[in-house]
Write a structure and sequence with these properties.
The chain folds into 2 domains: 157 residues, Rossmann fold (3-Layer(aba) Sandwich), CATH 3.40.50; 65 residues, no CATH class. It is built from 11 helices and 5 strands, in the order βαββααβαβααααααα. Helix 2 crosses helix 3 and helix 9 crosses helix 10. Strands 1, 2, 3, 4 and 5 form a 5-stranded parallel beta sheet that branches. The protein is of the alpha/beta class and 252 residues long.
Length: 252
Amino acid sequence: MPAGSEPLRLGVVCEALADYELATHLADRLLEARVPWLCDVQLADVRRWQGLTAAEPFLRWSEVPKLIRERGLRVAGKFGAESGAMDAASGRRALLLFAALPAPEQPHAVLLIRDTDGHPERCTGLQQARSDPSRHWPFQVVIGAEHCKRESWILAGFEPGSAEEQRWLAEQREHLGFHPCERPEQLWASDDDASSKRSAKKVLAALTRDDRSRELSCYRDASLELLLQRGQHCGLANYLRYVEKRLVPLLR
C-alpha cells in the first residue's frame, strides 16, 4: 500500500459483538498469512473494520430494515428469474445501505456474517444478494455463513491442552457419538431441553467450561490449516476462501 494511503474500509454486517470479533480476527489472520508485507506494518494502518460509518464497528442485522425505511431506499423483488431464498432480501438491503453511501465513504468490501441457525438455505440467500443481477455492487462481498452457530466455528479450532480437557472431549464424543470438533456441522442450533445433547453452545461450554479466554484461544491459536480442514461443512472453510479470494487482492 503506498505511503500516505488511507486504510481499506471493510464493512461488517453481523448480529453481535462476538460474531464481529470472530469474523474479523479470522480475516486478519488470513490476510497476514497471505500478504507477507503486512508483518512490517500495523494492521490498523492498513485496514479498518466498520459499520455504515467509521464510528461504529459493525452494522447489526436487526437495524437494517429500519435504516432502509428511514433512508427511503427502494428494494427490488426477485433475484433475476428466481425468488429469494431465506436472507436474500435481508442481504440485499444491507448491501444497498453501503452502496447508497457517498462514493468516498463506500467500503472497499462488505462482510455478511450470519448464523444459519440450522437453515443452510440462508447461505444460498446471501449468495443471491451478492450476485443480484439487478445490482452491480461497487465493492467486494464476503459471505460468512456460520452453520449452525458461531460456536461451530470455534469448536473447529478446539484441541485439548491438558489431560482434563482430553477427558472432557472424550465424554462429549461418547455422549454425541461423533467428534464435535472434527464434525461441528453435525451440531444443532437449538439448546432447548429436547435437543440440548447436540447443542453447539452447550458442547462448547462443556469443553471450555465457559472460560472466555479458552474460547478465544480456539480460533486465535489453532492453525489456519486445521480450521480449513475441520471447517469444510460448517461454513468456516468457505469464509476463509472468500477472504482469500476477495480481500487479499485488495492488499496485493
